[in-house]
Amino acid sequence: MMYYNLNLHLFSITKCRAFYKTFAKSIGILAILFSFFAKAATYEQIEMIQTAAETHISNTVEQPMGGELVIKAANIDSRVKATDCPIPLETSASTTSNKRSSITVLVQCVPDEWRIYVPVRMSMSVPLVTATRSLSRGELLGQYDVTITMIELNKFRRQGFTQAKQVVGAKVKKNLRPGDVVERGDICVVCRNEKVVIQAIKGGMVITTKGTALTDGSSGDQVRVKNDKSQRIIEGVVTDISEVTVYF
Predict the structure, then answer these.
(1) Is 102 exposed, middle or buried (0-12, 13-18, 19+ CB in 10 A)?
(2) Is 76 helix (H, G, I), strand (E, B) or coil?
(3) Which of 1, 29, 193, 199 has the smallest C-beta neighbourhood within 10 Å, fewest atoms?
């Protein structure tokens, strides 16, 4: 009888110990979780970090001439550690290139000893000349055949035109669809085998004569032309529709 009671007593002690051990573990896990989430960043802190990263890009990356730069910080895991920093957040990045689609910005609070790397996506758009209707090879571009459209540089990496006057009057060398960017190789302001005006400038004196283009060219391109009178072949710069300027 005494042996049975002793075993029962030992069994009770063992069971109690197991219970308290399990209870202690549960309390420990809860304490860890509470401590972890107590340090997690709030919505306002995350927003502050994203704004700091976007502001850094806005202040350091060169804006496109006449265009726009759209900046958007990536989402941040709400479990990251952050505080209400007692001083303005410090930011830095390894590059200021505007040719990249994403730059990672380091945002940190030195006094509270935390730092977060924030990827910032960039989308750069510039105004380029585009077709307003279907255009066939050989057509001359009129003022209503083109317009200015904001084009993302990530989707267009060739050479286009920024002003409609650069292409109006030019001849189309390939078929174009509505919305297509008019590229430099799509048109010729001066066209091969066609007559041009050769403008020779020396000092303050300007002399003009007629000639024939030997190569195609757009505004600003250097082309070869033949002086119809002297038959001399020279090189000049395309300065207008069917006009080539030679500087001496």
Answers:
(1) exposed
(2) coil
(3) 1
Could you give the 3-state DSSP secondary structure of residue 51? Answer: helix
State whether the Cα torsion 39-42-47-52 is positive or negative.
negative
Neighbours of 28 (CB within 10 A): 10
CA pair distance 149, 2, nearest whole angstrom:
98
Q: What is the pLDDT of residues 19-54, one digit of tens each?
A: 444 444 443 333 333 334 336 889 999 999 999 999
187-188/171-172 β-pairing? antiparallel
Q: Which domains does the chain have, with CATH numbers?
A: 43-124 (no CATH), 126-188 (3.90.1210.10), 195-247 (2.30.30.760)
Are the CB atoms for 136 and 172 separated by under 8 Å?
yes
d(CA 172, CA 44): 55
E strands present in 60-218? 68-73, 90-92, 102-109, 114-131, 146-152, 171-172, 187-188, 195-202, 205-213
Percent of the chain with pLDDT over 90: 62
Identify any residues that bridge with 183 across adjacent strands, giving them in sequence order.
Answer: 160
Q: Rounded to whole angstroms, how far apart are CA atoms 61 and 39? A: 33
For strand 243-247 and strand 195-202, is the pairing parallel, antiparallel, or unpaired?
parallel
pLDDT band at 78 (very low <50, low <70, confident <90, very high): confident
User: From residue 127, how far is each of 134, 135, 159, 247 by CA, in Å?
Assistant: 20, 20, 12, 31
What are the tokens at 99? 């040719």
Q: At CA 188, angle to CA 185 and CA 192, rounded to 5?
A: 110
pLDDT digits (tens, 9 = 90+) for 188-234: 999 999 999 999 998 889 999 999 999 999 888 999 999 999 999 99
Taking the model in full, what pTM does it have? 0.63
